[in-house]
Amino acid sequence: MTFSYKYERPALAVDCVVFGLDDDDLKVLLIRRDIEPFQGRWALPGGFVRMDETVDEAAKRELVEETGVGRVFLEQLYTFSALDRDPRERVVSVAYFALVNLSDHRVKAATDAREAAWFATSDLPALAFDHEIIVDKALERLRGKVRYQPVGFELLPPKFTLRMLQRLYEKVLEKALDKRNFRKKVLAMGLLEELDEVEQDVAHRAARLYRFDKKRYRELEKQGFDFEL
Amino acid sequence: MTFSYKYERPALAVDCVVFGLDDDDLKVLLIRRDIEPFQGRWALPGGFVRMDETVDEAAKRELVEETGVGRVFLEQLYTFSALDRDPRERVVSVAYFALVNLSDHRVKAATDAREAAWFATSDLPALAFDHEIIVDKALERLRGKVRYQPVGFELLPPKFTLRMLQRLYEKVLEKALDKRNFRKKVLAMGLLEELDEVEQDVAHRAARLYRFDKKRYRELEKQGFDFEL
DNA sequence: TCAAAAGTGTTAAAAATACACCCATGG
DNA sequence: CCATGGGTGTATTTTTAACACTTTTGA
Q1: Are A141 and A191 members of one domain?
Q2: Distance of CA B124 to CAs A168, A210, B108, B187, Å?
Q3: How far apart are CA B204 and CA B175, in angstroms?
Q4: Which residues pair with B28 in a beta bridge?
Q5: Mean pLDDT estimate for chain B
Q6: What's residue A103's pLDDT?
Q7: Within 7 Å: CB of B204 and strand D?
């Protein structure tokens, strides 16, 4: 069966830039292509948009299908449409960027049918299509966003130490931050719930755990509060 | 002649939210639809993407064709893909937002073959398709952007008074600003070139004209300078 | 007892805010 | 001469930046 149109149309796809943070680096989730074009190369998870789903839904679906990653922060990034971005035919792709708590997803991605792996943003392999450009755009967006929206927390487990939070900001913004000033500022916002728990299994004094108070943030937001770090 | 594909594909369109500023208000450029669906309703300028152009190019082209607006600030906004956004068939639309100096374009738009007109953002008519949602998204983006990128100048003539600049920020951000503090801050950035000219034909003391120094901005930007107002 | 990171305050500089009057110009 | 907006400075508060030592814990 085929579908006929009066005018020629590009194919429509989605691609997802999934960021995760581990002890060392900010990472991106890639899958290895098992078909041409770019067979064997690493690429962003993605695929074609179906007629019964929005592009948001397509991005979510592809993410689950290809990497097992579900229930994560996912936001539309940019639409890429260079005429030759796919050698087969004209494909316009709506890119998304996602933030996940890497420790939740480390295993899944590695055990999926298709080879999937995390790569440090500072050390990416050659990518298929225009995916390097897409990753660059996503990084730029993440760096801009993290400063005035509380999206960084999506990269951490629900309970985290202030040190983990600071490292996150340092990795994303690529600059060192002063510990005391950072703690002062972040606590002054009143968005962190101080828990009666400390981290486990560390070879030194255990740090207190905190939780991001989403409810409180939404309240403050309504009152015109601007997150800023 | 028709084009056949193995899988069904949505049509791909672009829509442009063109902002202009006049003495009273922030305005949006709309055109009146002369065909169904939504015949007679006001809508955003836009149209279908051709196979030999990127979506950026399509947006530029449609803007010129439908409104005569060319050489303006134009930036991709968001891609809209709700299944029922067009009653005829599935159409995915990449929205753009544009900033123009309204005094340059006031006449052109009005004399074009198709009826085009500027509407205050605070008083829009009922729009075709999901165009109200698109305008809202564009407004949100403009408000966010104007504070940390020098895009506001695109809404002014090349030579402007500080009062005009302040009014721009007040209209876009929807809040009053203190005159002295505003002038201090904006001049302290060192991005305004003070001209040896004053405004003409005003019924009171004429204000000095300034020009935005784009070259200087790009230099500072390279050195890590962040515009902020 | 050592290594590693947790936790904690103060001071100085810079930036943001609040605020009011005289001046120049054209009608 | 009056109405309109142009142009200007200071004091206060708030925010940011710089900076170092003691404590806790597990190995």
Answers
A1: no
A2: 43, 46, 20, 35
A3: 25
A4: B19, B119
A5: 95
A6: 83
A7: yes
- The answer to whether residues A142 and A92 belong to one domain is yes
The enclosing domain of A69 has a CATH number of: 3.90.79.10
Q: Which of B65, B115, B132, B193 is an active site residue?
A: B115
**A182 with A138, same domain?**
no
- Say how far B188 CA is from C19 C1', in Å: 20
Q: What is the pTM of this model?
A: 0.96
Q: Same domain for B32 and B101?
A: yes
**What's the N-to-C CA distance of chain B in angstroms?**
54
| Strand D near-CB residues (< 7 Å), B 163-182 | 163, 179-181
pLDDT at residue B80, as a whole number = 99
Find the mean pLDDT for residues A83-95: 98
Across the interface, which of A48, A53, A92 has its CB nearest the CB of B55? A92
Is residue A197 domain-shared with residue A133, that is, in the same domain? no
Whether the CB of A203 is less than 7 Å away from nucleic strand C comes out as: yes
If you average pLDDT over residues A93-109, what whole number do you get?
86
Q: At what angle do helices B179-188 and B162-173 cross, to 10 degrees?
A: 110
Which residues form the domain of A218?
Answer: 156-222
Flag whether B5 is in a domain: no
Query: pLDDT tens digits, residue range B10-47?
Result: 999 999 999 999 988 999 999 999 999 999 999 999 99
Give helix then strand counts, H and E, for chain B.
6, 11
Residue A207 C-alpha, separation from nearest chain B C-alpha, in angstroms: 34
Strand, helix or coil at A34?
A: coil
Query: B119-151 burial, b for 16+ CB within 10 Å, e for fewer?
Result: bebeebeebbbbbeebbebbbebbeebbeeebb
The backbone torsions φ and ψ at residue A3, rounded to the nearest 5 degrees and listed phi first, read -120, 130
